[in-house]
Specification:
By secondary structure, this protein is an alpha+beta fold. The chain has one domain (3-114): Aminopeptidase. The protein is 28% helix and 27% strand. It has three helices and five strands, in the order βαβββαβα. The protein has helices spanning 13-22, 76-93, 106-114; strands spanning 3-7, 36-42, 45-54, 59-67, 98-101. Strands 1-2-3-4-5 form a five-stranded mixed beta sheet. Strand 3 and strand 4 form a beta hairpin. The chain is globular.
Length: 131
C-alpha cells in the first residue's frame, strides 16, 4: 500500500502521546505544540509525525518528529523522508525560505543530511522554561 501524508488534527494528539510514552519520552503538553503538524500513514496506520512552528519571519521550525514505536515495516525510512520532503514543499509554497530543526537521533540526522540540510556537528541543548 501507498504512504499518505495529511495534516494533524486535534484527535491525533492522543496517538502521539502513546508514541512518546512508547519511546519512554515525556509527552508534550498540548499548550507546547503549534497548530501545524503532519503525519504519514499507510492503511490508516500512523508511522511518523511532526509539528511545524511558524514565525513572523521567512523561517519555520520543524520539531518533535516522532514515530510509531510499533511500526517496523521496511518503508519506515521512506515515511520519514516523505514527511520531511512534504514539510519542505508546503513551507516553500507558503514563501518560507529557511527551516530549522533540532535533533539528536543519528538516523534522523542522516535523513536530513541526505535531503541537503546542513548539520552542525557540535552538540547543542534544548533550553526551556515553563512559565
Amino acid at each position: 500500500m501507498k504512504l499518505n501524508i495529511r495534516r494533524l488534527v486535534e484527535s491525533d494528539y492522543e496517538t502521539l502521546v502513546e508514541w512518546w510514552e512508547g519511546w519512554k519520552w515525556p509527552a508534550l503538553p498540548k499548550t507546547f505544540l503549534p497548530d501545524t503538524g503532519f503525519i504519514v500513514e499507510k492503511d490508516k496506520i500512523g508511522i511518523v509525525a511532526c509539528y511545524v512552528y511558524m514565525t513572523n519571519s521567512k523561517a519555520a521550525l520543524l520539531e518533535w518528529v516522532i514515530s510509531n514505536p510499533e511500526y517496523r515495516e521496511s518503508d519506515r525510512k521512506d515515511a520519514i523522508t516523505l514527511l520531511i520532503q512534504a514539510v519542505e514543499h508546503v513551507l516553500a509554497q507558503q514563501g518560507i525560505k529557511h527551516i530549522f530543526t533540532i535533533g539528536r537521533n543519528k538516523h534522523l540526522i542522516n535523513v536530513h543530511e541526505k535531503l541537503g540540510w546542513e548539520v552542525d556537528k557540535k552538540p547543542s541543548y534544548e533550553i526551556i522554561k515553563n512559565l
